């Protein structure tokens, strides 16, 4: 099973920016922890980060036919990008949206996600551990999809 983890703008600055909101853990450390968890489930992870909306959209589209699911932190694009929303909807892959901070305790503009309605689930406010929760969730969703496909083949 292959899961692509897509990180949006400024996620590469984790551990340096607004530590009181996002914590001290760096993006690379989060990815390393995810690799350990994924290895226990025989899942392959691919990581991608960009500060550019078009590159994020290209990566989402590349997942079609090559990945079983997506974990995405669209960061600031959460609140503004119809294009990222449309790309997620177009590939029709199980997708979990992750936010490190609890966006509902922050500014009003951060409380509206254009992405959530096209995702399988959304995890907010658990800090870097949210990525682990997203991984467990996406693996469970993908496993259920595989079981359904297998059952349909037997009919």
UniProtKB/TrEMBL annotation:
The EC number(s) this enzyme carries: 4.2.1.10
Family to which this protein belongs: Belongs to the type-II 3-dehydroquinase family.
UniProt entry keywords in alphabetical sequence: Amino-acid biosynthesis, Aromatic amino acid biosynthesis, Lyase
Catalytic activity: 3-dehydroquinate = 3-dehydroshikimate + H2O
UniProt-listed InterPro entries: DHquinase_II (IPR001874), DHquinase_II_CS (IPR018509), DHquinase_II_sf (IPR036441)
Record's keyword annotation contains Translocase: no
Keyword rRNA-binding attached: no
One function term, GO molecular function aspect: 3-dehydroquinate dehydratase activity
UniProt pathway: Metabolic intermediate biosynthesis; chorismate biosynthesis; chorismate from D-erythrose 4-phosphate and phosphoenolpyruvate: step 3/7
GO biological process: amino acid biosynthetic process; aromatic amino acid family biosynthetic process; chorismate biosynthetic process; quinate catabolic process
Record protein name field: 3-dehydroquinate dehydratase
